[in-house]
Every structure is written in C-alpha cells, then in structure tokens.
Design brief:
The chain is globular. The chain has a single domain, classed as TIM Barrel (Alpha-Beta Barrel), CATH 3.20.20. The strands form two sheets. A four-stranded parallel sheet has the order 1-2-3-4, covered by helices on one side. Helix content is 23%, strand content 21%. It has three helices and six strands; from the N terminus they run βαβαβαβββ. α1 crosses α2. With 104 residues, the chain is an alpha/beta fold. The longest helix is centred in the first third of the chain and has 10 residues.
Length: 104
C-alpha cells in the first residue's frame, strides 16, 4: 500500500511537517510514500522529497512531474518515480519520450 502524504491540489490542515506525516504513515504500515507536486504533472518539491527520505526507512517515490531532464535531480531523494516519464501519441504511452508542456 502506498501513502500519498503530499497529494496534489491539497495541503496539510494541521500544519504537520512532511517528516511528521512520513513517520506517521510508516508507523501505520504503508509500503512506500508518494510525494506529489501541487498539481498533476508538476514537479514534487525537492525539500519535501528530502524531508520524507530522511525521516523513514521505506521507499519514497516522486509521484508527479518527473521528466527525463529532471530525473537525475530527483534520484538522490526519491527511490523511484511512481511512473516512467512518457509521452502520449495517438492514445498510446511511449516511455522515455517526455512531451513539452502545451505540445501535442
């Protein structure tokens, strides 16, 4: 089971830190943590990834925004992206071919 502790389009109501939420989710038994950006396709905060990774001993996945050009920046703090960078062509995903925002 994955726990999305920084879900896109939301924020922590109680003001708990990412480290606190990560530790709590790990205590509850999740298998991995998802760290998301503020919206689908937007990079997760490197500080959120780092804070979660330093707080727990379970895998931390970058849940949104990972692209070919950013994967090396993300890799020190995320064990993996939650999905491979991909591009949609004619309704099919083609791994490894990120699409520029706004392109068709």
């Amino acid at each position: 089971m994955f726990g999305n502790i920084t879900p896109e389009f939301s924020r922590s109501v109680g003001g708990r830190t990412v480290a606190d939420r990560a530790a709590s989710a790990a205590y509850l038994g999740v298998d991995a943590l998802l760290i998301s950006g503020p919206a689908a396709g937007v990079d997760a905060s490197m500080s959120d990834l780092r804070e979660a990774k330093e707080a727990v001993d379970i895998p931390v996945l970058a849940n949104t925004g990972v692209k070919h050009e950013t994967i090396e920046d993300v890799s020190p703090w995320a064990d993996a992206p939650s999905s491979a960078p991909a591009e949609s062509r004619r309704g099919h995903l083609e791994p490894g071919r990120p699409r520029a925002r706004g392109s068709t």
